[in-house]
């Protein structure tokens, strides 16, 4: 877990019930990398787990795969749990909050608060879903308990899509900032002219590629803990440029821009897209009863962080605000170079951990165990990496891609699914108020997802 990921990568066996926690205050041991990801533990009768058979959600190893099990990670203290939750919530979305404010206007900040409140509530709902049965430990477990194996697979696919999309965002972010450092870079290869962005995207891919070939990601999980420092450095660079250097703060902007509001909705919702890890933060706590206060503290800190950066960034750059505020920082300043290189180097430590669960998900469906060799694994990971390169070259729009992820996947995982699962699991004990609240949130999520996704796709097509 680290502060610089927008959609935080789970552990390599997150659909098997293992902990999502990649790195806490001190990094935890890595789970086995050979566990299947989608197939769930099965009982002798091969029945789908329900609330009346909670033990069928217990975490056991599949007989199809043999792997050395590492010791289970230690339970987290209250402080560690708060830090994990903050690290999950405060991600790369913070780079685009000034741009979201510019697009939607000052009144759009109310949406930032509203989505914070809603996602805090749905985080509480996930806790209640976990408490409904002692065998439920992960988000896919919740989906299986509520809607059977199809529910588990649907949630798994949604989480994989989030992870894959995050890798595309990492590559775009790295290429944008590297291109800003070397704006005049050009190359002609086999008659093909490459501009600075295209060159930097290819270079970034080649730099990242060896990291995804690693079978043991323990080293990267230790390095990725530096994301906490990275985010602080970037935000301090922004404030330094505004308060100390020549940029300063200037008033301006519109009150509300309804035409651009769907983009803003997608960007703001992306900021709170960490619900996939909440069940595992809860399961890892020494005092799980204090989980609501963990969410309250982490959501409060995340909101004020996003709010502060959005306001400061927009007051500094106004209508010229870019989808990543680091691209607005004056190139000649040392602080700007520090921020740019920090953003460039950070994805190198995040990409492999994020794409690996997707790779294992694909490997699980290989028809023969003999195909699950190291060579095949490298081939699959290489294809995945180059596929993200192709997409990042085809759709090199950081803000639009982030808005698309926020509008579609985050709305689904953070708003719609928690409410739907809670209604299903608590249908006999849910109050009218809770039913009305969940139904309203589902409607808000669906409408926002449709409008935001359409707007994001349209902006990329134009």
UniProtKB/TrEMBL annotation:
GO cellular component: organelle membrane
One of the GO biological process terms: amino acid transport
Superkingdom: Eukaryota
InterPro entries documented for this protein: AA_transpt_TM
Subcellular location(s) per record: Membrane
Keyword Transmembrane attributed: yes
Any one Pfam family match given in the protein's UniProt record, by short name: Aa_trans
Membrane topology: Multi-pass membrane protein
Keywords for this protein: Amino-acid transport, Membrane, Transmembrane, Transmembrane helix, Transport
Keyword Transmembrane helix: yes
Parts of the chain that traverse the membrane: 108-126, 146-163, 196-214, 219-241, 294-318, 338-362, 374-398, 404-423, 435-457
Domain Amino acid transporter transmembrane stretches: 76-456
Family: Belongs to the amino acid/polyamine transporter 2 family. Amino acid/auxin permease (AAAP) (TC 2.A.18.5) subfamily.
Protein name: Vacuolar amino acid transporter 1 isoform X2
Protein's organism: Nicotiana tabacum
Gene: LOC107769961
